[in-house]
Specification:
This protein has a single domain, classed as Lipid/polyisoprenoid-binding, YceI-like (Lipocalin), CATH 2.40.128. It is mainly beta. The radius of gyration is 20 Å and the shape is globular. A hairpin with a 2-residue loop joins β8 and β9. It contains 2 helices and 11 strands. The two termini are 40 Å apart. An 8-stranded antiparallel barrel has the order 1-4-5-7-8-9-10-11.
């Protein structure tokens, strides 16, 4: 009985530590925590479903200004060869390599987004407008962003963290990627989830 009581007490303390409120993260330079981030994209496929894939190597850098979010700046770099489609027969076709590397698709050229303006639209919402480059072409693009919150000290990592969700869409034909339109939809939508840590944090 004593052992059970001690375990319950210890568990309660642990739970309380995770549930305890924390001060917000300070301003400064932040980067993507890749183990707690995702970048998914999709487009209409034959009018029957939305084909969905993702990028696994996304490096976002944020100069965070919590007192004036509209003064924050964001830059993102994506490795086109990190595309993952979960194609079911990789022994027959390296489909990920085709999408990421062939001239018809992403052409193994860097994908970047650089913010030009940030607009606060609500207590925890905003838009980020900037320039998106892929396939060697650059055009305007916009993200709708939700600020999920921040911590001055994450209970497991011991460093400040910031969390965001973002959505957006583009017309891929504007970047010269017009393969199989309209059978494959022109509009590509994307959904981003990310936690960010200080830019000087060393992942082990």
């Amino acid at each position: 009985m004593l052992r059970i009581t001690a375990f319950a007490f210890a568990f309660g303390l642990s739970t309380a530590a995770f549930a305890a409120p924390t001060d917000p993260a300070p301003g400064g330079a932040y980067k993507t925590d890749p183990s707690h981030s995702s970048f998914n994209w999709s487009f209409n496929h034959s009018g029957l479903s939305h084909y969905t894939a993702r990028f696994t190597r996304v490096d976002a850098r944020l100069d965070w200004k919590p007192e004036r979010p509209e003064a924050s700046t964001l830059s993102v770099t994506i490795d086109p060869l990190s595309v993952r489609t979960d194609y079911p027969w990789p022994e027959k076709v390296d489909f990920d390599r085709e999408i990421g590397g062939e001239e018809t698709f992403l052409a193994d050229k860097p994908i970047t987004f650089v913010s030009k303006s940030v607009h606060v639209t609500g207590e925890k919402t905003g838009t980020v407008e900037g320039l998106l480059t892929f396939r060697g072409e650059t055009h305007p693009a916009k993200l709708d962003v939700t600020f999920n919150g921040s911590m001055a000290e994450h209970p497991m990592m011991g460093v400040p963290k910031i969390g965001f969700s973002a959505t957006g869409s583009i017309k891929r034909s504007e970047w010269g990627l017009d393969f199989a339109i309209p059978e494959l939809g022109d509009e590509v939508t994307f959904a981003i989830e990310t936690q960010m840590v200080p830019a000087d944090y060393a992942f082990e």
